[in-house]
Amino acid sequence: MALSDSLLTLSLALAAEAAFGYPHRLYTWIGHPVTWIGRLIKGLDRSLNRETRSFGECRAAGILALLILLTMTGLAAWILEWLFLPLGIVGLALLALLSGTLIAQRSLHEHVAAVSEGLRDSGLDGGRRAVSMIVGRNPQSLDEAGVSRAAIESLAENFSDGIVAPAFWIGVGGLTGGALYKAANTADSMIGHRTPRHEAFGWAAARFDDLVNLPASRLTALLIVAAAALHQGASARNAWRAVLRDASHHRSPNAGWSEAAMAGALGLRLAGPRVYGDVRIEDRWMGDGRAEANADDIDRALGLYRTACLLLFALAAGATLLTWIIAR
């Protein structure tokens, strides 16, 4: 797929997904590309990740599983491109609709907004119920400020790996590029954990996901900084300072960029110590503002997020136009 076609596909995909999302009825009928990828990952985990194997053998099996996953996902997406591209603008529109299923602008907004609504309508219990749908930490360990920070952190991190990253790879490689990224990211979320079962087998998935998220995490920080410059009550300067000071101290090589930018923009402290299950993780703070976040701060973060999504679309549309001008 030519770069101009992949960028047009991206622009259309971003607009369509923001407008319509992924219909729930369609999800209940046929599932979602992520669920299909997830079934393949589970099958590879069951068949290749055996307890009788040594650490090195499990790591090699995990590399093989990742290669199989990427090959099968990439081939399926490439076949769809091969079938649809000859159809011209109709084919590109169909590819854009398929590519839009790999982006989660609308659903992320809905899930994070539900936390704000839960806090306002049902107090701390409502906020805990809503935030448990989007974070892995123990919700019972969170007070109102902790629930609010968790929602904002999830918004920032998922803006990077759930929206900007797939958008970046769709822009670079069309549906195939986006599908390959989504396969890698889903593998990391399912098997890329340092648990007894997956520490060796999921090593390749975790490292590869870190690699493919590098460009998008930096772009996400820039989008949040730019969005802060357009919002009264947000600070682009503090967002950029927080990125430069704190992003590299996050335990993830990528998540710190978006979380630090969001924290600085809103005058908050995000990340920091947290509890997953019964385990307390001593993470560094992102930002140097107040830690006492609330539902209003979630709404402010959502406002920045919406603006950043518009900036991402403008960037994609501008890049599309530029490639057309150059081609002529």
From TrEMBL:
One Gene Ontology term, aspect cellular component: plasma membrane
Cell location: Cell membrane
Alphabetized UniProt keyword annotations: Cell membrane, Cobalamin biosynthesis, Membrane, Transmembrane, Transmembrane helix
HAMAP family attached to this UniProt entry: CobD_CbiB
Pathway(s) it belongs to: Cofactor biosynthesis; adenosylcobalamin biosynthesis
GO MF annotations, alphabetized: ABC-type vitamin B12 transporter activity; threonine-phosphate decarboxylase activity
Bilayer disposition of the protein: Multi-pass membrane protein
Keyword presence, Transmembrane: yes
An individual GO BP term: cobalamin biosynthetic process
Keyword Transmembrane helix (UniProt): yes
NCBIfam families found in the cross-reference section: cobal_cbiB
Protein name from the UniProt record: Cobalamin biosynthesis protein CobD
Similarity comment text for this entry: Belongs to the CobD/CbiB family.
Taxonomy, superkingdom: Bacteria
Function: Converts cobyric acid to cobinamide by the addition of aminopropanol on the F carboxylic group.
Annotated TM spans: 61-79, 85-104, 308-327
